[in-house]
Specification:
two-stranded antiparallel ribbon; mainly alpha; rod-shaped; single chain
């Protein structure tokens, strides 16, 4: 190899290696300091694209899980109101039975009737309760209890796909319909009359949920009506429980999905600290060695001075 002064090929080669080793050293430092294997798109463009989609899916899954938890709260509040309604109807039936005692005077029956009317008002207040501004019950008077076609539902989306994915239909329970009865006196359709504080009224429907002057008297209904009302409320609570169970399983599935998606994203984005620490040590030594060799290469042309002397 010829001895030259203008072009020091050894120094150029050492400088190139020093630059490359410094780049790899900086990359290792960036990865270890950030905890990410991909610190810029050029590190792994395809992996970064997949990670972005996975990250978005994880965020949507977390949001869907939060929505299910809110739906569970809605369901719990709704069931609590129906549980209170069942206790009220149960007490009404007890008052009705007590009022049938032949040993009770008219005044005694009147006292039972006073509580009976007060309970109607309390039951009425339960049917209009709301959860965060959303009504808990379907109180549409045209809705018929037990008729699925008149059910009012709230859709709860249980996947990160929104409306395009799976969902659970939550029923706004027909609490008012459960305690309302058809009072036709006969098959001919002649409506029966019942007495209220406002006077005698003719109508086809009679409800246990009334307020003020619309409250019915304890003598207007037989014990069988209260039994039916309790059965209706029990049916509503069963539907509520079934929906709550579905929501619980959906939430468990979402949590597992979120965990698996996070693991998949981690395999793409997160740095292997053990491996990268080894690379850091390697490129740190190589950078120092390259710098030392560059210094040696820069002194090589001094040999030419010996020939010129």
């Amino acid at each position: 190899m010829s001895l030259t002064i203008n072009t020091n090929t050894s120094a150029i080669s050492a400088a190139f290696n020093l630059s490359k080793n410094n780049d790899m050293l900086n990359k290792s430092l960036n990865r270890l300091s950030s905890g990410k294997r991909i610190t810029k798109p050029s590190d792994d463009a395809g992996g970064l694209a997949i990670s972005m989609k996975l990250t978005s899916s994880i965020a949507r899954t977390r949001a869907a899980s939060s929505n299910i938890q809110n739906a569970q709260s809605f369901s719990s509040v709704q069931d609590g109101a129906m549980q209170a309604a069942a206790k009220i109807v149960d007490r009404m039936s007890e008052l009705k039975s007590l009022s049938l005692d032949v040993m009770k005077s008219t005044q005694d029956v009147g006292n039972y009737n006073t509580e009976f009317k007060s309970l109607q008002q309390q039951l009425k207040s339960l049917t209009v309760e709301k959860f965060n501004g959303v009504s808990l019950f379907n109180n549409n008077t045209s809705s018929k209890f037990g008729d699925a076609s008149t059910n009012e539902v709230v859709e709860v989306y249980t996947s990160d796909s929104g409306a395009a994915g799976s969902k659970v239909s939550m029923h706004k329970a027909m609490l008012l319909g459960a305690v309302t009865f058809n009072m036709l006196a006969s098959a001919s359709g002649t409506p029966a009359s019942h007495s209220t504080a406002a006077g005698t009224t003719n109508g086809t429907n009679l409800t246990l949920a009334n307020s003020g002057a619309n409250a019915i008297n304890i003598d207007d209904l037989g014990v069988s009506f209260f039994v039916t009302a309790l059965e209706n409320v029990a049916t509503l609570r069963a539907v509520n429980g079934a929906t709550s169970s579905r929501l619980s399983f959906s939430e468990d599935h979402l949590r597992l999905t979120q965990t698996n998606l996070s693991a998949a994203n981690s395999r793409i984005m997160d740095v292997d600290v053990a491996e990268e620490s080894t690379n850091l040590a390697k490129y740190s030594i190589l950078s120092q060695a390259s710098a030392a060799m560059l210094a040696q290469a820069n002194t090589a042309p001094n040999t030419a001075l010996m020939l010129l002397g």
